[in-house]
Amino acid sequence: MDPVNIAAVTPKKNRLARAFTKVLHIRALTGITPAGDQHAKEHVQKPKIHDQVNHNSVKTDRCNSFDEDEKLRRKEVIEAFLAKLFSSISSIKAAYAEMQSAQSPYDSESIQSADEIVVSELKILSELKQCYFKKQIDDSSPRTTQLMAEIKEEKSLTKTLQIMAKNLDSEHKLKQSELTFVKEKLEEAKSENKLLEKRLNVSGPLSPLDNLHFSVISPNHFILVLRQTVKAIRNFVRLMISEMEAAGWDLDAAANSIQPGVVYSRDMHKCFAFESFVFQELFDGFNYPYFSISHESVSEKKRQRQFFDRFTAMKSQKMKEYLAWKPKSTFAKFCRTKYLRLVHPKMEASLFGNLSQRNLLTSGDFPETEFFSLFSEMAKKVWLLHCLAFSLEPEASIFQVNKNCRFSDVYMECLNQEAFLSPTGIVDADPRVAFTVIPGFKIGKTIIQSQVYLT
């Protein structure tokens, strides 16, 4: 090879190599790589992308952790708020129970204390309501608040249960006393049954009213009780007349004041005037339930059974014991009302020299005199007749014949047969009623005659 050519080529190659090296160096500084170096570029950039992803992941984890803590705290605050709400309600309930318990026996201090608690808790509830509506539910230590509220609620619940236990204990004692009383009445009933058995063995069969059942009552039972009632009233009238005679009363004037202008066939018939007065006063209001002195509400369907039950419970009672046992009963009120209407204050003062019996009755007590004892037995018979009248189907109704009405065999029974004869001995076909002594009754188609005195 020619040496000159070699010398000429070598410097040219050296210059090309330096120029290529320089270009590569510039591209490396500016980030431009040849196509063949694309893989090298990607290898350089990948670590930077990975670092960015790691940074964002750390940031997201921190945000999620903060949200979870905030939700947990919010939940604790709400639970504390609800705990305070329910504890206040429990406190009000306990205070109300205490207030009710303090009514009987009356305890003013306990009532005032319970009232203050109610007012205080209502204020707390009002504050909680305002916080809820204004969305100001916040608490620096919700767990502590919740625990304190739960403790408060448990105390209120314990207090309520203690009051309930106290009330139940009082009711238990009351039931025990009632049980003792019922046991005593049972022993009395057993004793009375033994006496009745002895009387039965001596006197024979029982009365038709004994062991009477609601399903078999009839007008015949009513007639039987009516006869007993008439007998009791006539016994009382005899006692009243004897007391009037002992006190120096003018019986003719008294009879004339009750039934003016009546001419009696015999002097002994004047007692009918006194009987008519007693019957009229005692049977006034007979057609109304409980003589209108009581307004007990009961359905029409149950009323008959209720009256029969009262008839059954009353017929074997002794009046002195019954009135002492139930001084505020409807029958006791009936006794007071009828006595005060039947026995005028002037009459009582004249017969007994004072008004002690009337004063006892108006004060709520009952006299223990023979006069009132006979009166109460008479009132009992009238009351039993009244109860039996409303036990029947249809109910028994009372009627009374007016003065100067014509005599009727259907509705009337004459107490003085002499009225049918004129002074000349001729039969009078048209006698008139002077007054009704014993009223009559009507039960469906059954007529129980009234007893009248004719003129």
Strand content: 5-15%
Beta strands, count = 6
Rg from alpha-carbon coordinates: 54 Å
How much helical structure, as a percent, in the residues?
55-70%
Strand order of the largest sheet: 1-4-5
Low-pLDDT stretches are 1-13, 23-47
How many alpha or pi helices? 13
Distance between the termini: 194 Å
Decide which structural class fits the backbone: mainly alpha
The major sheet is characterized as: 3 strands, antiparallel
Describe the global form.
elongated
Compressed to H and E, one letter per element, the order equals HHHHHHHHHHHHHEEEEEE
pLDDT averaged over residues: 82
Q: What are the salient characteristics of this protein?
A:
GIL1_IRKI_C, 455 residues, GIL1-like, 13 helices, single chain, DUF641_pln, three-stranded mixed beta sheet, three-stranded antiparallel beta sheet, coiled coil, mainly alpha, DUF641 domain-containing protein
What does this 3D model show about the protein?
The protein is mainly α and 455 residues long. The chain has helices at 3-30, 38-101, 108-133, 142-203, 219-246, 251-258, 271-282, 300-314, 319-325, 330-342, 345-352, 356-362, 370-389, and strands spanning 397-399, 412-414, 433-438, 440-443, 446-448, 450-454. The protein contains 13 helices and 6 strands. The strands form 2 sheets. It has a 3-stranded antiparallel beta sheet, with no helix packed on it. Strand 4 and strand 5 form a beta hairpin. Helix 2 packs parallel to helix 4 (142-203) and helix 5 crosses helix 7. Residues 172-199 form a coiled coil. It comes from Heracleum sosnowskyi. This is DUF641 domain-containing protein. Keywords: Coiled coil.
